[in-house]
Amino acid sequence: MKICQSCAMPITDDNLLGTNKDGSINQDYCKYCYTNGKFIYDVGVEEFIDMCSQFGEQAGMTNEQMKEYCTKIFPTLKRWKK
Predict the structure, then answer these.
(1) Residues 5 and 77 sit within 8 Å (Cβ to Cβ)
(2) Cα(3)–Cα(19) distance, rounded to whole angstroms?
(3) For 1-82, where are the alpha helices, taking DSSP H only?
(4) Domain boundaries, the chain
(5) Model's pTM, two decimal places?
(6) Considering Cα of 57, then 37, then 75, then 1, what sign does the dihedral take?
(7) CB–CB of 69/61 below 8 Å?
(8) Cβ count near 54 (within 10 Å)
């Protein structure tokens, strides 16, 4: 399964993909993270983890579980990998 390389959201449909500056589809990032060739949220990984951890319920977990998940997975994603 493809996941967003910024927030790890499952990308189950191409309508969820972000766009490049020229309007073409970006295969790496979702539309909630990346549009028109740039990231929507210009933040560091720690702040982004805090932001995303608020959506635990939507992912079927508590916000604390979501924060733990994000803390583990985000450093492995293209946007955050060092």
Answers:
(1) yes
(2) 15
(3) 45-52, 63-73
(4) 14-76
(5) 0.90
(6) positive
(7) yes
(8) 11
Which residue, chain included where needed, has tokens 């977990």?
61
Q: Which of 66, 28, 29, 33 minimizes the C-alpha distance to 49?
A: 66
Give the CA distances from residue 50 to residues 12, 21, 24, 45, in Å, rounded to whole numbers and listed in that order.
24, 27, 30, 9
CA 69 to mean position of chain CA atoms:
12
pLDDT tens figures, 34-61: 999 999 999 999 999 999 999 999 889 9
Cα–Cα dist 79/38, whole Å: 11
